[in-house]
Design brief:
By secondary structure, the protein is mostly helical. It folds into 2 domains: 97 residues, no CATH class; 63 residues. It contains 10 helices and no strands.
Protein backbone atom coordinates (compact mmCIF):
# COMPACT_ATOMS: atom_id res chain seq x y z
CA UNK A 1 0.00 0.00 0.00
CA UNK A 2 1.21 3.50 -0.67
CA UNK A 3 1.68 6.24 1.88
CA UNK A 4 -0.08 5.75 5.21
CA UNK A 5 -2.54 8.49 6.13
CA UNK A 6 -1.30 9.48 9.58
CA UNK A 7 -4.38 11.54 10.41
CA UNK A 8 -6.58 8.49 9.74
CA UNK A 9 -4.24 6.01 11.43
CA UNK A 10 -6.71 4.96 14.13
CA UNK A 11 -9.92 5.12 12.07
CA UNK A 12 -11.59 1.69 11.79
CA UNK A 13 -12.68 2.28 8.18
CA UNK A 14 -9.21 3.30 7.08
CA UNK A 15 -7.63 0.40 8.97
CA UNK A 16 -10.06 -2.08 7.39
CA UNK A 17 -9.20 -0.78 3.91
CA UNK A 18 -5.47 -1.04 4.66
CA UNK A 19 -5.85 -4.59 5.97
CA UNK A 20 -7.82 -5.58 2.89
CA UNK A 21 -5.21 -4.01 0.60
CA UNK A 22 -2.42 -5.88 2.35
CA UNK A 23 -3.98 -9.28 1.79
CA UNK A 24 -6.78 -9.98 4.23
CA UNK A 25 -6.09 -13.69 3.92
CA UNK A 26 -7.90 -16.32 5.91
CA UNK A 27 -5.99 -18.23 8.58
CA UNK A 28 -4.63 -21.70 7.81
CA UNK A 29 -7.33 -24.33 7.71
CA UNK A 30 -10.03 -21.95 6.50
CA UNK A 31 -11.49 -22.18 3.04
CA UNK A 32 -12.07 -18.50 2.29
CA UNK A 33 -10.11 -17.22 -0.63
CA UNK A 34 -8.12 -14.03 -0.16
CA UNK A 35 -9.32 -10.95 -1.95
CA UNK A 36 -8.32 -10.98 -5.62
CA UNK A 37 -5.07 -9.15 -6.43
CA UNK A 38 -6.84 -6.50 -8.53
CA UNK A 39 -9.20 -5.69 -5.65
CA UNK A 40 -6.32 -5.51 -3.15
CA UNK A 41 -4.43 -3.20 -5.52
CA UNK A 42 -7.50 -0.99 -5.94
CA UNK A 43 -7.96 -0.76 -2.17
CA UNK A 44 -4.45 0.60 -1.74
CA UNK A 45 -5.68 3.84 -3.29
CA UNK A 46 -8.51 5.83 -1.75
CA UNK A 47 -9.57 6.99 -5.22
CA UNK A 48 -9.84 3.46 -6.62
CA UNK A 49 -11.43 2.19 -3.41
CA UNK A 50 -14.09 4.87 -3.68
CA UNK A 51 -14.93 3.59 -7.17
CA UNK A 52 -15.34 0.02 -5.88
CA UNK A 53 -17.49 1.22 -3.00
CA UNK A 54 -19.61 3.68 -4.94
CA UNK A 55 -18.66 6.42 -2.47
CA UNK A 56 -17.35 9.76 -3.69
CA UNK A 57 -13.58 10.03 -3.04
CA UNK A 58 -13.70 13.13 -0.85
CA UNK A 59 -16.55 11.64 1.18
CA UNK A 60 -14.51 8.46 1.73
CA UNK A 61 -11.58 10.64 2.81
CA UNK A 62 -13.76 12.45 5.35
CA UNK A 63 -15.10 9.13 6.65
CA UNK A 64 -11.57 7.77 7.03
CA UNK A 65 -10.42 10.98 8.73
CA UNK A 66 -13.37 10.80 11.13
CA UNK A 67 -14.80 14.19 10.22
CA UNK A 68 -18.12 12.65 9.15
CA UNK A 69 -19.96 9.45 9.96
CA UNK A 70 -20.78 7.10 7.12
CA UNK A 71 -24.30 6.12 6.20
CA UNK A 72 -25.29 2.55 7.07
CA UNK A 73 -25.29 1.63 3.35
CA UNK A 74 -21.71 2.86 3.06
CA UNK A 75 -20.64 0.76 6.05
CA UNK A 76 -22.30 -2.28 4.49
CA UNK A 77 -20.45 -1.65 1.23
CA UNK A 78 -17.11 -1.28 3.03
CA UNK A 79 -17.76 -4.43 5.09
CA UNK A 80 -18.46 -6.40 1.91
CA UNK A 81 -15.65 -5.05 -0.28
CA UNK A 82 -13.05 -5.15 2.53
CA UNK A 83 -14.25 -8.53 3.87
CA UNK A 84 -14.64 -6.87 7.24
CA UNK A 85 -18.06 -7.79 8.71
CA UNK A 86 -16.92 -6.40 12.06
CA UNK A 87 -17.37 -2.89 10.61
CA UNK A 88 -21.16 -3.31 10.73
CA UNK A 89 -21.09 -4.34 14.38
CA UNK A 90 -18.70 -1.52 15.31
CA UNK A 91 -20.84 1.03 13.44
CA UNK A 92 -23.98 -0.10 15.25
CA UNK A 93 -22.28 -0.16 18.65
CA UNK A 94 -20.41 3.16 18.27
CA UNK A 95 -22.20 5.40 15.79
CA UNK A 96 -25.85 4.42 15.37
CA UNK A 97 -28.02 6.41 17.80
CA UNK A 98 -30.20 3.36 18.53
CA UNK A 99 -27.41 0.78 18.49
CA UNK A 100 -25.15 2.67 20.89
CA UNK A 101 -27.56 1.78 23.69
CA UNK A 102 -28.51 -1.69 22.48
CA UNK A 103 -25.69 -3.35 20.54
CA UNK A 104 -22.58 -4.56 22.32
CA UNK A 105 -19.38 -4.18 20.34
CA UNK A 106 -17.59 -7.46 19.77
CA UNK A 107 -14.00 -8.11 18.85
CA UNK A 108 -12.87 -10.87 16.56
CA UNK A 109 -10.12 -12.93 18.20
CA UNK A 110 -8.46 -16.05 16.84
CA UNK A 111 -10.77 -19.02 16.37
CA UNK A 112 -9.40 -21.04 19.29
CA UNK A 113 -9.81 -18.10 21.67
CA UNK A 114 -13.37 -17.44 20.45
CA UNK A 115 -14.32 -21.12 20.78
CA UNK A 116 -13.07 -21.14 24.38
CA UNK A 117 -15.03 -17.96 25.16
CA UNK A 118 -18.23 -19.49 23.76
CA UNK A 119 -17.68 -22.73 25.66
CA UNK A 120 -16.86 -20.81 28.85
CA UNK A 121 -20.03 -18.76 28.61
CA UNK A 122 -22.08 -21.97 28.13
CA UNK A 123 -20.55 -23.92 31.02
CA UNK A 124 -23.31 -23.00 33.50
CA UNK A 125 -26.21 -23.28 31.07
CA UNK A 126 -27.91 -26.08 33.05
CA UNK A 127 -27.82 -23.99 36.24
CA UNK A 128 -29.26 -21.02 34.32
CA UNK A 129 -32.03 -23.20 32.92
CA UNK A 130 -32.90 -24.53 36.38
CA UNK A 131 -32.88 -21.05 37.87
CA UNK A 132 -35.09 -19.65 35.10
CA UNK A 133 -37.58 -22.48 35.55
CA UNK A 134 -37.73 -21.83 39.31
CA UNK A 135 -38.20 -18.09 38.81
CA UNK A 136 -40.85 -18.45 36.11
CA UNK A 137 -42.97 -21.17 37.76
CA UNK A 138 -45.49 -18.75 39.22
CA UNK A 139 -45.33 -16.30 36.31
CA UNK A 140 -44.11 -13.48 38.57
CA UNK A 141 -40.59 -12.30 39.32
CA UNK A 142 -40.63 -11.62 43.06
CA UNK A 143 -38.28 -9.06 44.63
CA UNK A 144 -36.11 -11.81 46.12
CA UNK A 145 -35.83 -13.46 42.66
CA UNK A 146 -34.67 -10.31 40.86
CA UNK A 147 -30.92 -10.72 41.59
CA UNK A 148 -31.01 -14.29 40.23
CA UNK A 149 -32.97 -13.08 37.21
CA UNK A 150 -30.39 -10.32 36.59
CA UNK A 151 -27.65 -12.99 36.70
CA UNK A 152 -29.55 -14.93 34.04
CA UNK A 153 -29.82 -11.83 31.85
CA UNK A 154 -26.11 -11.07 32.30
CA UNK A 155 -25.16 -14.63 31.38
CA UNK A 156 -27.38 -14.54 28.31
CA UNK A 157 -25.73 -11.26 27.23
CA UNK A 158 -22.30 -12.87 27.58
CA UNK A 159 -23.40 -15.91 25.57
CA UNK A 160 -24.89 -13.64 22.90
CA UNK A 161 -21.78 -11.47 22.63
CA UNK A 162 -19.45 -14.48 22.38
CA UNK A 163 -21.71 -16.14 19.81
CA UNK A 164 -21.78 -12.94 17.72
CA UNK A 165 -17.98 -12.72 17.79
CA UNK A 166 -17.71 -16.31 16.58
CA UNK A 167 -20.29 -15.62 13.88
CA UNK A 168 -18.35 -12.56 12.65
CA UNK A 169 -15.13 -14.62 12.64
CA UNK A 170 -16.87 -17.23 10.47
CA UNK A 171 -18.20 -14.59 8.06
CA UNK A 172 -14.74 -13.11 7.71
CA UNK A 173 -12.73 -16.31 7.48
CA UNK A 174 -14.72 -19.19 6.01
CA UNK A 175 -17.44 -19.87 3.52
CA UNK A 176 -20.04 -22.00 5.20
CA UNK A 177 -21.97 -24.30 2.95
Amino acid sequence: MGKKATKAADNMYYLARCEAAEGNTAPNGCNAAPLPEDVRTALSSRERASELLGIERTRLARIELGTISPYPEEVKAMAKVYNAPELCNAYCARECPIGRDNVPEVTIDDFDRLALKVLGSLKDIDALRTSLIAISEDGVIEADEQPAFQEILDSLEKISTNAKALQLWALKNIRLK
